[in-house]
Design brief:
The protein is an alpha+beta fold. The protein contains 13 helices and 18 strands.
């Protein structure tokens, strides 16, 4: 069967679905000889909506066999297994769908023809449900807590309800794709299917000139010069000139000549270059993309400039409006956590001490500052008499100091207790177990706090803890 015939049948089947005639749509899809991954996925969805679970499973097997990176196909097969009460296989499929997200919060399938966004939090929601069915309540709770931290907005309130149900060791509803959502063929390809009448219809005419005896078909019109000997091949048919490749990584274009692709896209490579770039056909476009499947090419944009600190600038240079004119020194201060301030070189000890005191929100009289004397690893307490040596130790506009609190003084940081366990997913996160006591170091925003627990410092969601005085909200 030709590519054009497949497109025509695919488009007819989609029209049947939109007219709420799924039986006719399924019959048309099944008659397609060369079924690609998207068509097999559509067949599986139609069977799944009819509760024909064995047939749905086989169709999703075919979809995954043709595209092993199609996360939404793993998700739908996991739903089919769940309804067949084959929970172990359902769990494996949902976990594979989560893996194919590759750390992203979602995959938007709209560019591929499916108006659906697969969210990581909803995949984890279903993973938690299957684990609950297997009576792995702790694992289910962990996955739902992770889903809670990954949810994009308030529309995922069902995750909160699921977490409440898990705490009571009860089940909750499965997340499913809405009935009627299937992959549609590319609209530009479909437009090429329309028949065009380039010759038009012959017309019988007669001359209006009295002396002209002509009567019959319209005479030939003046010909256009330089007419191509063969018509231009439609772009949609150029796919047959290339070799199909599956995209492994998302590529964001930086120029108008480059092409955006997502993991799982099928592109047809027309020409490969020696610099890991290739010209491909995708969605009727011919554009260059990076074709190195093993190691993504390094970014070509210049690195962003470092933000200029404002605390020190306002203190030292007052109302200077152009911060780029300030050529100060960056002072890194090691405390229970690390801070950095900007200050003009040569400032007296009292100015530095006051700035650090203000930053740490501690009385200046309780702080002791030290620096590493040049040529020695020994840290020397800073006094007014040491300031010349301190400024002489500045290298490349940077100075490192160590700060401590005088003996008998304590740092007035708030203590909180963990309501749930939290596993760190990035180096910046602070992991802890339920019941751990955490020292709050700073507030990042309304949803995240910086704290210290078990000798480690990092950030964590504020909803996972409560103040020791019993308040749920930590300020």
């Amino acid at each position: 069967m030709s590519f054009v015939s497949t497109l025509r049948q695919w488009d007819e089947a989609v029209a049947c679905v939109e007219q709420r005639d799924p039986d006719s749509a399924l019959r048309i899809f099944l008659n397609i000889e060369e079924k690609n991954s998207k068509i097999a996925f559509n067949i599986g969805c139609l069977y799944l909506n009819n509760d024909e679970l064995d047939e749905a499973e086989k169709a999703f097997d075919g979809s995954i066999g043709k595209d092993q990176h199609l996360a939404v196909a793993f998700f739908q097969r996991g739903v089919a297994f769940y309804k067949k009460e084959r929970f172990e296989e359902s769990l494996l499929d949902f976990q594979q769908a989560f893996k194919q997200l590759r750390g992203n919060q979602l995959i938007d399938y709209k560019p591929l023809g499916l108006r659906y966004k697969l969210y990581a939090c909803e995949v984890l929601h279903n993973i938690g449900l299957v684990q609950a069915q297997l009576e792995k309540w702790e694992k289910a709770q962990e996955n739902l807590l992770t889903a809670l931290s990954l949810r994009a907005d308030a529309k995922f309130s069902h995750i909160d309800h699921a977490l409440d149900a898990i705490l009571k060791q009860k089940l909750f509803p499965l997340v499913e794709i809405r009935v009627g959502l299937i992959f549609k063929p590319n609209k530009h390809y479909v437009a090429e299917l329309e028949k065009k009448d380039y010759l038009g219809k012959a017309k019988v005419v007669s001359s209006i000139v009295p002396a002209d005896q002509f009567s019959g078909f319209a005479p030939l019109q003046p010909q256009v010069d330089n007419v191509p000997s063969t018509p231009k091949v439609p772009e949609v048919l150029r796919v047959f000139e290339g070799v199909p490749h599956t995209v492994l990584y998302e590529f964001v274009p930086e120029t108008k000549e480059e092409l955006a692709v997502l993991p799982g896209n099928i592109v047809f490579v027309l020409q490969k270059g020696a610099d890991n770039w290739a010209f491909v056909v995708f969605n009727e476009k011919i554009e260059p993309v990076n074709e190195n499947d093993d190691i993504p090419a390094p970014p070509r944009r210049a690195a962003p400039s470092r933000p200029v600190g404002t605390d020190g600038l306002k203190t030292v240079i007052g109302e200077t409006s152009n911060a780029s004119e300030f050529s100060g020194c960056v002072v890194k201060v090691h405390f229970q956590f690390t801070i950095a301030i900007s200050i003009a070189p040569g400032q007296p000890y009292g100015v530095i001490l006051q700035m650090i005191s203000s930053k740490l929100k501690l009385p200046a009289s309780t702080l002791i500052l030290r620096y590493a004397k040049e040529g020695s690893d020994k840290r020397v307490i800073i006094e007014d008499s040491e300031m010349e040596a301190v400024w002489n130790s500045v290298k490349d506009g940077r100075l490192t100091l160590w700060c401590s609190v005088t003996e008998g003084k304590s740092v007035p940081h708030e203590k909180v207790v963990a309501l749930y366990s939290y596993d760190s997913t990035t180096p910046e996160d602070l992991g802890f177990k339920q019941g751990n006591i955490i020292t709050i170091l700073s507030k990042v925003n309304d949803e995240w706090l910086e704290g210290q627990c078990n000798g480690k410092i990092g950030i964590f969601p504020s909803t996972f803890v409560k103040a020791l005085n019993g308040d749920q909200k930590c300020k």
